[in-house]
Write a structure and sequence with these properties.
The protein is α/β, with parallel strands linked by helices. About 40% of the residues lie in helices and about 15% in strands. It has two domains: about 5-210, P-loop containing nucleotide triphosphate hydrolases (Rossmann fold); about 225-460, Nucleotidyltransferase, domain 5 (2-Layer Sandwich), CATH 3.30.420.
Length: about 475
């Protein structure tokens, strides 16, 4: 690549020599022009190379870079408009291929080797790390290939932010940041106009390429990533959490914990009631987990599991259950004649919201850990990052509803559900009998409520 074509920030990227580059830039800052130069150079410098450019969609791939690539290689390469491929001659007398595609077609690249890959608008790609690790990273093994990850940051799906975090500790990675102002070809008057007309957050994100945190997000993104490397002080109590698909068509997830560290997670497809019960009993036997520390999502197929006589004593969990009262009221003073503490209260809309807020507090304070890796890890991060404070101003704290998270993901958030349900035991542990007379009474009433819920589960399962 000829460095004189590049502005100073582009030259800095070009000369850094790292294998993987996370490049965060403002709109019209020169990201795409840099990648056109790099893709062309990678393809023409040696024969028999394959170079990929991946945008979020096929339409975006054509609109963002296709015409620019064709103009760059005009009169040199052979263009296939249908396949969005350009065959180019190389300096050593051979040929190489540049392939342009959308992220939605990523499965087409499985098993194909690559010498270089550019991912554009990386923050708008769903399930990005799963696709990167399972499809594209293996494509670079045989070739020792390189990759660039470019884009303007998006607070809803901060893939670039996570790649930059990896660059802090991995010697093969580098990260770069430049703004729209750093492109000397852009008219200053237009940039000044954008600054005057845009709201502050949009200007910071789109022009300055800064990270703008989602103000309503319950989980701090960096802390969420740290869950999978945290070292915590844990007790020896073990717990089993089972998330069962509502209709049995999806996967059933089993999550095993030692204290607040998840040490194992496994999933199985298309399990029926009998096989789920059998698997629960097997985990309990091998891991020595008591029934009182086992919890199952008692919705749909799970209702039959929770009501099974083979699992007497297991806890049936439903998101819609009332929250557990654990906090002393700050407005109702205790009557000194008959009780030592203020009445207990709860400020949550339902049990699920109470569990989500509890998990967020532990995650943000680095008090929970998980040892799962790969796809399970990526799904958990993606799912929990979507939760926001969705309270309606009625004095009850409410987290984003599961159906809204499911709609945003395009799938059920089964993996984060196991972590959320684990919080039931954290909340229950706060109900210490010695705390006050009311707590002891409350524990008895709470048990009666769960017994009633259990009876409803039995009735539902027999209909």
């Amino acid at each position: 690549m000829t460095a004189h074509l590049l502005h100073p920030h582009q030259q800095k990227i070009n000369l850094n020599g790292k294998r993987f580059n996370a490049i965060r830039g403002g709109r019209r800052g020169g990201k795409t022009k840099y990648e056109i130069e790099k893709l062309s150079h990678k393809a023409t410098s040696k024969k028999d190379r394959t170079v990929f450019y991946i945008a979020p969609t096929q339409i975006q791939a054509r609109n963002i870079i296709w015409e620019g690539l064709k103009a760059k290689l005009s009169g040199i390469g052979t263009v296939n408009e249908v396949r969005l491929e350009i065959k180019v001659p190389t300096v050593d007398g051979g040929f190489s291929i540049i392939k342009v595609a959308g992220w939605e077609n990523r499965e087409n690249f499985r098993g194909q080797p690559a010498d270089h890959i550019t991912f554009d608008e990386t923050d708008t790609m769903k399930d990005f790390f799963i696709g990167w690790q399972e499809i594209f990273r293996p494509a670079l093994i045989d070739t020792g290939g390189t990759a660039d990850f470019i884009g303007t940051p998006k607070k809803e799906n901060p893939n670039l932010r996570r790649l930059e975090k990896q660059a802090e500790t991995d010697a093969e990675w580098a990260s770069f940041h430049f703004t729209s102002w750093d492109n000397p070809t852009l008219p200053v008057a237009e940039l000044e106009k954008a600054k005057a007309e845009m709201d502050a957050d949009t200007y910071r994100q789109e022009i300055m390429a800064e990270y703008v945190d989602n103000a309503g997000a319950l989980f701090h993104y960096d802390a969420l990533i740290d869950v999978f490397s945290n070292t915590i002080t844990k007790d020896k109590e073990k717990y089993l959490i089972v998330d069962i698909a509502d209709d049995g068509s999806d996967k059933t997830v089993f999550s095993l914990w030692e204290g607040l560290e998840e040490y194992k997670r496994e999933e199985y497809a298309h399990m029926n009631t009998e096989t789920i019960i059998s698997q629960i009993r097997e985990y309990q036997r091998i891991e020595q987990i008591p029934m009182s520390q086992s919890l199952v999502d008692a919705i749909g197929v799970g209702a039959g599991v929770a009501s099974s006589s083979l699992l007497t004593g297991i806890i049936g969990y439903k998101s819609s259950y009332a929250p557990i009262k654990t906090d002393q009221s700050i407005v109702q003073l205790p009557n000194i004649h008959y009780r030592t503490g203020a009445p207990l209260t709860s400020e949550y809309a339902n049990l699920r919201s109470q569990c989500v807020f509890t998990l967020a507090d532990l995650v943000n304070n680095h008090k929970v850990a998980s040892r799962v890796t790969g796809e399970f890890k990526e799904k958990t991060i993606e799912e929990l990052a979507l939760y926001q404070d969705a309270s309606k101003g009625d004095g009850k704290r409410m987290a984003t509803q599961k159906e809204d998270v499911k709609e945003a993901l395009g799938r059920s958030p089964d993996h984060s559900d196991t972590m959320i349900m684990r919080m039931y035991f954290v909340i229950r542990a706060r109900m210490i009998p010695e705390q006050s007379i009311e707590v002891a009474e409350l524990r008895q009433r709470q048990q009666q409520i769960f017994n009633t819920n259990q009876n409803f589960i039995v009735q539902d399962s027999t209909k």
